């Protein structure tokens, strides 16, 4: 039977930003079947580069899959935008599931 993914979105760490890059991670867990798609949007604009995706093997206990998608961009570019979204499409979902965060709300210097 189909299982809906749990979706978590993690902003980059300040440590990482100070080093010059920003990696934003979208984690999907406990879903079935394996086919799932993740789209990244920055201020509403679809991103096509800087994305790495990896799918885990099937979990032997409950036969579900997990996936992580990472968007990596230069810190300067990260700082120049506000809204970061990961949009998940999966057979179990009637419409895309979107997780977002606003950069200004995450950044506490």
TrEMBL record:
The Ig-like domain, residue ranges: 5-102
CDD domains noted in UniProt: IgC1_L
UniProt entry keywords in alphabetical sequence: Disulfide bond, Immunoglobulin domain
Alphabetized InterPro entries for the sequence: Ig-like_dom, Ig-like_dom_sf, Ig-like_fold, Ig/MHC_CS, Ig_C1-set, Immune_Resp_Modulators
Source domain of life: Eukaryota
PANTHER family: TAPASIN (PTHR23411)
Record's protein name: IGKC protein
């Amino acid at each position: 039977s189909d299982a809906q993914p749990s979706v978590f979105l993690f902003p980059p760490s300040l440590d990482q930003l100070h080093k010059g890059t920003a990696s934003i991670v979208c984690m999907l867990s406990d879903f079935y079947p394996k086919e799932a798609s993740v789209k990244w949007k920055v201020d509403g604009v679809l991103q096509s580069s800087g994305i790495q995706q990896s799918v885990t093997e099937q979990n032997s206990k409950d036969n579900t899959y997990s996936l992580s998608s990472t968007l990596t961009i230069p810190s300067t570019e990260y700082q120049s935008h506000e809204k970061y979204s990961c949009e998940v499409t999966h057979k179990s979902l009637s419409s895309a599931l979107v997780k977002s965060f606003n950069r200004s709300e995450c950044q506490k210097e």
